[in-house]
Structure formats: structure tokens, C-alpha cells
């Protein structure tokens, strides 16, 4: 679906398609344990978040040089643009690269080569959000923030990702305080596999402005009421939730109930190379399977721009919002 939209929940390492992975492996002399792209795709059957993360971190071995990160981001931006993404706020996981001997500068400068020219090359504006791995220590997160200081002109905010259960947001209180003091925006994954209490904790202790996923808020009516009242954006990822078994099937996804409850939902792709679809594919899927109306889809697109970190470019945000309102459905889209 090419309805104009912002993508607010996208891990750049999760856009590594098997074809590019093998190309980079060859370029860098990295041996992969799969015979080819088909065998690698066969491995994309996940039981839960951890089983996905194991493969996601393993395949990162092929990303070594600035050019690799540039090619990765360029490939994502081209695919996203073709599906109506006009603005992308892109996560990256520096600790996963630094642990392999690939420095912060290689990652940020490589990504920036693609992001810095993306409005001209792809018609997509971008922001970069640095995520801390929550299954690593708070000290490691603080050291990562320190390493990022030379690159803060390229980085808009910080996030929190990786294995959620057993790693509550409060573990990262100090690093989020330090990030806020540096003028960085704050988001965090919460309520994907972890309990609703993690969502409240991310708001109260970390001061986040958006919740990534937030799916499990529906188990706590008082929390839902708060999220509605405070208009906290939730960056939902429906196809991800199916592949990582946070929901049984897409038909069971609570998105319609969440919208009916008045929650400020957005729809995103998370790790599209692994979960079977980019942003537009996620919109197509929820339209087709959950029967969302054209007005609901337009609301999701509007929310994505309202929840984006475009405060320094309000004119651009206004232009995107006008594009959402002016959008005319194609014959095959959003039929009612
Ligand atoms: N869906 C997800 N949840 C937590 N960490 C992630 N890292 C990449 N994708 C993720
Ligand atoms: Zn995610």
C-alpha cells in the first residue's frame, strides 16, 4: 500500500535480505553456515523473540565496512520508498557491531552516507535512533552512549531493544537520564513479550515519548486508559508479532480493538527481511485480514507523522500530513 506513511519502528540490521547477506559475505570473505539464500530463508521459522535474535545477531557478521552499512541502508530506503514510506526513523544496534570489532564510526558514518542523501535519492527523510541492548549491562549502555558522543549530530534519539523479559526498563535509568541531558529523544521497546508493567516503567522511569510495540498494554485497562489520555504513540508491528508468536495469527491481532480504545497506534515493519514484509506490506495485511476501513488506515498514517520526531522540520511534517489527507485509494487498495 503506497498510502504516505512514516516508519517509526525499523531495525536497519533487520532489513538485511538473504541476497545482500551473501553478497556482503563474499565481499568480506565471511563464511556463512547456510548453503545459499534458500537454505537461509528456511531458517526463518521462529518460536519466539530469542530464537529470532540468535539468527539476527549471527547474520550481522557480514556487515563490516562503511560501504556495507551504506548498501544496507540504501536497499532499505529504496524498498520503503516504493511502499509509500516518506519518513523513516531508523534503529541501529551499535553494541552488536562493537562486540565484533566494528566501531561506532564505521556504523554511523556508513549509515549516514545513505541517510544523508536519502531525500534526494529516495524521497525519504530520515532520523537515526541508537538502541541499547537490554540483555547487556547498564554499564555497557553507558559506555556506548559515551562512544556515540562524536556522532550526536547524526543521532536523534535512543531506544532499548533485544531480549525483553527479565530486563526491565529501570535497569537503564541512568543512561536514559544521561541521554536526555544530551538532548536526545527517548523511546523503548516494551510490552512485546514483557508485561504491561514494563510499559508504565518505560514512561515513568525512562521518560520515553513513544512505546515500541506496547502490544501487551491490552491486558491492563488502567494502563490503556493512561496511554489514551496521554496520547502515547505505540509503534506496532503486526507481521513481526505473528512471526515471533506474540499473537497466534494475524486475525487475532488486537490492532482493531486498540484503535477502538482510542490508542495512538502506528503500523511498522520491525525487521522486514525476516518477518515477511515492509511497511506497506504490513498495511496491506491489516487491511486484508483485519478489515480495517480506509479511514482507519488513514488514521494510522496520520498518527505516524504526528508521532515522528519532526519537530525541527514542522513544514515538512505539515506537507506529509497534507499528503495523507489528499491520498486517493487505488482500485486494489483499502476497498470497503
Ligand atoms: N522485535 C524486536 N524486539 C526486540 N529487539 C529487537 N531487535 C530487533 N528486532 C527486535
Ligand atoms: Zn523492534
UniProtKB/TrEMBL annotation:
Site residues, Important for catalytic activity: 213
Domain Adenosine deaminase, first and last residues per copy: 4-316
EC top class named in words: hydrolase
Swiss-Prot/TrEMBL cofactor(s): Zn(2+)
Active-site positions on this chain: 192 (proton donor)
Cofactor note: Binds 1 zinc ion per subunit.
Classification via Gene3D superfamilies: Metal-dependent hydrolases (3.20.20.140)
InterPro entries xref list: A_deaminase_dom (IPR001365), ADE (IPR028892), Ado/ade_deaminase (IPR006330), Metal_Hydrolase (IPR032466)
Sites where the protein binds Zn(2+): 9, 11, 189, 270
Catalysis performed (reactions): adenine + H2O + H(+) = hypoxanthine + NH4(+)
Keywords: Hydrolase, Metal-binding, Nucleotide metabolism, Zinc
CDD domains: ADA (cd01320)
Positions bound to substrate: 271
EC number of the protein: 3.5.4.2
Pfam families found in the cross-reference section: A_deaminase (PF00962)
Matching HAMAP family: Adenine_deaminase (MF_01962)
Family the UniProt entry places it in: Belongs to the metallo-dependent hydrolases superfamily. Adenosine and AMP deaminases family. Adenine deaminase type 2 subfamily.
Role this protein plays: Catalyzes the hydrolytic deamination of adenine to hypoxanthine. Plays an important role in the purine salvage pathway and in nitrogen catabolism.
Protein name stated in the entry: Adenine deaminase
Amino acid at each position: 500500500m503506497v498510502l504516505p506513511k512514516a516508519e517509526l519502528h525499523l531495525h536497519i540490521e533487520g532489513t538485511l535480505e538473504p541476497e545482500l547477506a551473501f553478497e556482503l559475505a563474499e565481499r568480506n570473505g565471511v563464511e556463512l553456515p547456510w548453503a545459499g539464500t534458500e537454505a537461509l530463508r528456511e531458517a526463518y521459522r521462529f518460536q519466539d523473540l530469542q530464537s529470532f535474535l540468535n539468527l539476527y545477531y549471527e547474520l550481522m557478521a557480514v556487515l563490516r565496512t562503511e560501504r556495507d552499512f551504506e548498501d544496507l541502508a540504501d536497499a532499505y530506503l529504496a524498498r520503503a520508498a516504493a511502499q509509500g514510506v516518506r519518513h523513516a526513523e531508523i534503529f541501529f544496534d551499535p553494541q552488536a557491531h562493537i562486540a565484533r570489532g566494528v566501531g561506532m564510526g564505521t556504523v554511523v558514518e556508513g549509515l549516514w552516507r545513505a541517510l544523508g542523501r536519502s531525500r534526494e535519492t529516495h524521497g525519504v527523510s530520515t532520523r537515526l535512533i541508537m538502541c541499547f541492548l537490554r540483555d547487556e549491562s547498564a554499564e555497557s549502555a553507558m559506555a556506548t552512549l559515551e562512544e556515540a558522543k562524536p556522532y550526536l549530530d547524526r543521532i536523534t534519539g535512543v531506544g532499548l531493544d533485544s531480549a525483553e523479559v527479565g530486563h526491565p526498563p529501570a535497569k537503564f535509568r541512568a543512561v536514559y537520564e544521561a541521554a536526555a541531558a544530551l538532548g536526545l529523544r527517548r523511546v523503548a521497546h516494551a510490552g512485546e513479550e514483557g508485561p504491561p508493567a514494563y510499559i508504565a516503567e518505560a514512561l515513568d522511569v525512562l521518560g520515553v515519548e513513544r512505546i515500541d510495540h506496547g502490544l501487551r498494554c491490552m491486558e491492563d485497562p488502567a494502563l490503556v486508559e493512561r496511554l489514551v489520555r496521554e496520547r502515547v504513540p505505540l509503534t506496532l508491528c503486526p507481521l513481526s508479532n505473528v512471526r515471533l508468536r506474540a499473537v497466534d495469527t494475524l486475525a487475532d491481532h488486537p490492532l482493531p480493538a486498540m484503535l477502538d480504545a482510542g490508542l495512538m497506534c502506528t503500523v511498522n515493519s520491525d525487521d522486514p527481511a525476516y518477518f515477511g514484509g515492509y511497511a506497506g506490506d504490513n498495511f496491506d495485511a491489516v487491511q486484508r485480514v483485519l478489515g480495517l476501513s480506509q479511514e482507519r488506515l488513514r488514521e494510522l498514517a496520520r498518527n505516524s507523522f504526528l508521532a515522528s520526531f519532526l519537530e525541527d522540520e514542522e513544514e515538512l511534517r505539515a506537507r506529509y500530513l497534507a499528503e495523507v489527507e489528499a491520498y486517493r485509494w487505488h482500485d486494489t487498495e483499502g476497498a470497503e
